[in-house]
């Protein structure tokens, strides 16, 4: 590609300590393979701890110039690895500490969407050990407030099913988002270089787009570009970009969206470190725009390097 200087070493950070560890290892391996195909000097770094000093020791021993973050979930997308990389002055791909935390925290991100007038489903917050909130109108989506890959998520159609769904979500965190269920179609939009990529429609063959459906062959159909009229297609792209910007994300992300039966658009969440597996949707969204997987990975690294270069030039001036 020629985007990354030969003198630099890119460390692909993968694995991690969250429930998405196995998916992260696959994403990291795919990114590492892409960098190698681009003749970029690269090392694969399996993160097996979230203790800052141990991670710093591992990074120091690896002697890398740039970190390609392929960590999903906690200690990957929540700002903590970003904070460590900032402290040791290693440039890294993707969003910074604050934006990463906001995107991971579904309560804070939804509050930010509301503040920035980005349409998002209504929600209530349940805290383990406290009473169930009043005013729930079914169906609802129950999800942990600080997890990804649809872990612990349930669609609940009646009050009798709610306690089990809350228990399932509380197995991950003690705070749970009870979100209005939007009847309609599901879409996702990749963001790259602050521009929306192709809109992908997600059609699960049964149920909803849960963890198993996301990472298994044949359980969902993906239509890209999504079959929508031009005005609605552009509207979905625009809301996706607005959500990305509302949280202060940069360089790339993937935004999940529901389209209600009356064509109203609702943003569900922003994924600041999208998956890079063979089932992942950011690469699919990019490929529809003529961007190969290898080019996508190289551009992710280039964006980080270019920002560092611009920062250094500003400091010199």
Supply the key terms:
five-stranded antiparallel sheet, globular, 317 residues, alpha+beta
Number of helices: 10
Structural class: alpha+beta
Helix content: 25-40%
Radius of gyration: 19 Å
Q: Major sheet: size, sense and barrel closure?
A: 5 strands, antiparallel
Mean pLDDT: 91
Order of helices and strands: EHEHEHEHHEEEHEEEHEHEEHH
Proportion of strand residues? 15-25%
Overall 3D form? globular
Strand order, main sheet: write it out. 11-10-9-12-13
Q: List segments where confidence is low: pLDDT < 50 over at least 5 consecutive residues.
A: 209-216
Describe it for me?
The chain has 317 residues and is α+β, with helices and mostly antiparallel strands. The protein is 36% helix and 24% strand. The protein contains 10 helices and 13 strands. The strands form 3 sheets. The chain has a 5-stranded antiparallel sheet with strand order 11-10-9-12-13. It has a 4-stranded parallel sheet with strand order 2-1-3-4, sandwiched between helices. Strand 1, helix 1 and strand 2 form a beta-alpha-beta unit. Helix 1 crosses helix 10. The longest helix is centred in the last third of the chain and has 24 residues. It is globular.
Put the structure in a nutshell.
With 317 residues, this protein is of the alpha+beta class. The protein is 36% helix and 24% strand.
What's the layout of helices and strands?
Blueprint lengths: L9 E6 L5 H17 L4 E6 L4 H11 L3 E4 L10 H8 L3 E2 L4 H8 L1 H10 L7 E5 L12 E5 L9 E3 L5 H9 L4 E6 L3 E9 L2 E10 L6 H4 L5 E4 L6 H17 L5 E9 L4 E7 L9 H7 L5 H24 L1
Parallel strand pairs: 1-2, 1-3, 3-4
Antiparallel strand pairs: 5-8, 6-7, 6-8, 9-10, 9-12, 10-11, 12-13
């Amino acid at each position: 590609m020629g985007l990354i200087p030969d003198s630099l070493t890119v460390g692909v950070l993968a694995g991690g300590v969250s429930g998405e560890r196995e998916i992260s290892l696959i994403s990291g391996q795919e990114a590492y393979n892409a960098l190698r195909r681009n003749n970029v000097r690269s090392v694969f770094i399996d993160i097996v701890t979230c203790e800052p000093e141990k991670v710093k020791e591992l990074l120091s021993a690896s002697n890398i110039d740039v970190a390609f973050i392929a960590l999903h979930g906690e200690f990957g997308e929540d700002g903590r690895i970003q904070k460590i990389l900032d402290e040791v002055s290693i440039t890294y791909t993707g969003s910074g500490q604050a934006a990463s935390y906001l995107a991971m925290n579904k309560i804070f991100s939804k509050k930010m969407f509301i503040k920035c007038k980005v349409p998002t489903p209504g929600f209530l917050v349940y805290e383990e050990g406290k009473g169930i909130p009043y005013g729930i109108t079914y169906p609802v989506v129950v999800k942990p407030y600080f997890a990804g890959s649809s872990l612990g998520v349930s669609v609940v159609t009646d009050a009798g099913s709610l306690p089990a769904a809350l228990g399932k979500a509380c197995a991950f965190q003690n705070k749970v988002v009870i979100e209005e269920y939007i009847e309609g179609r599901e879409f996702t939009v990749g963001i790259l270089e602050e521009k929306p990529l192709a809109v992908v429609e997600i059609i699960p063959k049964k149920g909803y787009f849960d963890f198993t459906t996301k990472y298994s062959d044949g359980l969902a159909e993906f239509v890209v570009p999504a079959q929508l009229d031009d005005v609605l297609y552009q509207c979905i792209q625009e809301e996706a970009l607005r959500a990305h910007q509302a949280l202060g994300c940069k360089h790339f992300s993937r935004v999940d969206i529901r389209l209600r039966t009356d064509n109203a658009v609702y943003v569900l969440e922003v994924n600041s470190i999208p998956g890079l597996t063979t089932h992942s949707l950011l690469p699919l969204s990019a490929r529809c725009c003529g961007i190969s997987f290898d080019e996508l990975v190289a551009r992710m690294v280039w964006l980080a390097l270019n920002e560092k270069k611009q920062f250094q030039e500003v400091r010199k001036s």
